[in-house]
């Protein structure tokens, strides 16, 4: 890190203060304002954190203008093509891809943690039978601290590791059980002879009464979807996990907080909205009408799956997902799939429209993911749950990075108070 550059700030009282400028390994420099309050008796004001870096991190880098996403230096496209979800998980957690031996050890450890304490199934039975799977996921993950108290000491590296492995391993089991409960089917136990994604498919789709054949193309597509959603730097849910963890809260509570944040429609819920929108558009002849609606300042309608706070170029994950969609639909003999045809035509027309070009609005990760999940057979209510399964490894990696950082402090933003001044109570 180079601390020699300085930014000068002219204060309204005429005082000039100097603030160090720090360079990372990639991306824009940052102005270190940690001494600002001490020097200037002022805070910064940045609701939505559009100009604020909240931490240092070695995990993920995004260049939104170029459409680049790197995990530990590797391009997301390469990871999706050449690695598995568990290899990418190891990379996110430990910084490098695993050797053959390390991979075996890691996959083995995760696989050995897939089962849930049997008492947890009683906990499920307390939910209402039509509960949304995300509501159940949030509650059960939060409750894990009550079942796995032996891995909640955040100052113990071994306990942190066990908690991390438990979360990555058990999340598909918890997610599948949430779904099974919501549709009144019996829980399906994990099968450790299957890989991570195969096991997830089996727990979601198999029933005791019938044999379920796992389609390798679907399992591969799901694995790639998990890789593509595994981490995305300091997004709302990851920042939530870090903030919750900064107080010393246990990892299960922190991940439950991340799930709650992800559930919001502005974050993890957009893939569902894309499917709804395509159904509404209904036919290629109607696309122009919807594009015009999206451009109309007086209409609140937006093209779902288009635009991104960080990407002002094609989201690299959307490109990979378009190819996966083609493969999955071909496998289902659905290449003339109406939703996919609509999506491709909509993308083509929007990308060639001046409004979308000028505002740099491109398809994001949610544009094609719903089409793939729907073709595999996942119900819409599980879309965000699958996102949470994938993102758990990102949350865990950031949580571990924060806890291991000796300089990390409790997160405590300040505010611009706009309420009543002090007054007397008569
Ligand atoms: N359709 C039409 N116009 C849009 C769209 C869109 N999808 N997205 C942005 N715009 C326009 C806005 O109206 C605004 O226009 P203006 O400058 O004339 O006011 C301009 O582009 C900038 O938009 P902002 O909302 O200011 O950009 P911001 O970075 O805050 O929002 C967001 C990004 C929320 C993703 C937005 O693009 C959007 O609502 N997209 C649709 C929902 C979606 O797909 N969300 C998933 C994001 S990916 C994820 O979270 C996993």
Question: Can you characterise this structure?
Answer:
There is one protein chain. It is built from 18 helices and 6 strands. The protein has 426 residues and is mostly helical. The strands form 2 sheets. A 3-stranded antiparallel β-sheet has the order 1-2-3. Strands 4-5-6 form a 3-stranded antiparallel β-sheet. The termini are far apart.
Q: Mean pLDDT score, rounded?
A: 94
The CA-CA distance between the termini, in Å, is: 57 Å
Q: So how many helices? A: 18
Reported for the largest beta sheet, the result is: 3 strands, antiparallel
CA radius of gyration: 23 Å
Q: Considering DSSP H and I runs of 4 or more, what fraction of the residues is helical?
A: 40-55%
Q: Low-confidence stretches at least 5 residues in length (pLDDT < 50)?
A: none
Strand arrangement in the largest pleated sheet = 1-2-3
Based on Cα principal axes, name the global outline.
Answer: globular
The proportion of residues in beta strands is 5-15%
Number of strands: 6
Helices and strands, in order, run as EEEHEEEHHHHHHHHHHHHHHHHH
Task: Give the oligomeric state.
Answer: single chain
Structural class: mainly alpha
Tell me which ligands are bound: acetyl coenzyme *A
Summarize the structure.
51% of the residues lie in helices and 6% in strands.
What's the arrangement of secondary structure elements?
Elements: E1 5-10, E2 16-22, E3 30-31, H1 36-40, E4 60-63, E5 68-71, E6 74-75, H2 76-82, H3 85-94, H4 100-111, H5 119-124, H6 133-147, H7 157-183, H8 196-205, H9 216-228, H10 236-245, H11 251-262, H12 270-281, H13 287-295, H14 316-331, H15 338-351, H16 354-358, H17 366-376, H18 383-404
Antiparallel strand pairs: 1-2, 2-3, 4-5, 5-6
The structure holds acetyl coenzyme *A.
């Amino acid at each position: 890190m180079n601390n020699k550059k300085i930014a000068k700030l002219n204060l309204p009282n005429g005082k000039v203060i100097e603030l160090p400028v720090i360079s990372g390994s990639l991306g824009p420099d940052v102005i270190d304002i940690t001494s600002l309050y001490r020097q200037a008796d002022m805070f910064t004001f940045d609701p939505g954190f559009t100009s604020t870096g909240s931490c240092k991190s070695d995990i993920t880098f995004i260049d939104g203008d170029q459409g680049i996403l790197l995990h530990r230096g590797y391009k997301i496209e390469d990871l999706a093509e050449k690695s598995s979800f568990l290899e990418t998980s190891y990379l996110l957690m430990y910084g490098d891809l695993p050797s053959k031996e390390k991979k075996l050890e890691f996959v083995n450890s995760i696989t050995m943690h897939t089962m849930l304490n049997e008492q947890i199934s009683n906990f499920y039975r307390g939910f209402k039978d039509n509960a949304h799977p995300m509501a159940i996921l949030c509650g059960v993950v939060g409750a894990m601290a009550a079942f796995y108290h032996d891995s909640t000491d955040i100052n113990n590296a071994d306990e942190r590791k066990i908690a991390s492995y438990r979360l990555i391993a058990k999340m598909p089991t918890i997610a599948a059980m949430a779904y099974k409960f919501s549709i009144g089917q019996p829980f399906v136990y994990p099968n450790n002879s299957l890989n991570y994604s195969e096991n997830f498919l089996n727990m979601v789709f198999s029933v005791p009464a019938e044999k379920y054949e796992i389609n390798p193309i679907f399992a591969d597509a799901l694995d790639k979807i998990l890789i593509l959603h595994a981490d995305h730097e300091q997004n709302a849910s990851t920042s939530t996990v870090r903030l919750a963890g900064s107080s010393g809260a246990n990892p299960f509570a922190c991940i439950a907080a991340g799930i709650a944040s992800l559930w919001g429609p502005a974050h993890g819920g957009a893939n569902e909205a894309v499917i709804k929108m395509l159904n509404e558009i209904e036919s290629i002849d109607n696309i122009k009408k919807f594009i015009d609606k999206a451009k109309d300042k007086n209409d609140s309608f937006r093209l779902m799956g288009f635009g991104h706070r960080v990407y002002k170029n094609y989201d690299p994950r959307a490109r990979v997902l378009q190819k996966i969609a083609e493969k999955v639909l071909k496998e289902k003999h659905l290449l003339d799939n109406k939703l996919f045809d609509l999506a491709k035509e909509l993308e083509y027309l929007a990308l060639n429209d001046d409004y979308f070009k000028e505002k740099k609005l491109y398809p994001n990760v949610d544009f094609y993911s719903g089409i793939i999940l729907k073709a595999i057979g996942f119900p819409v209510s599980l879309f965000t749950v699958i996102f949470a399964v994938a993102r758990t490894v990102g949350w865990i990696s950031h949580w571990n990075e924060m806890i291991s950082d000796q300089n990390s402090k409790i997160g405590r933003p300040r505010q611009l108070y706009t309420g009543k001044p002090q007054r007397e109570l008569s």
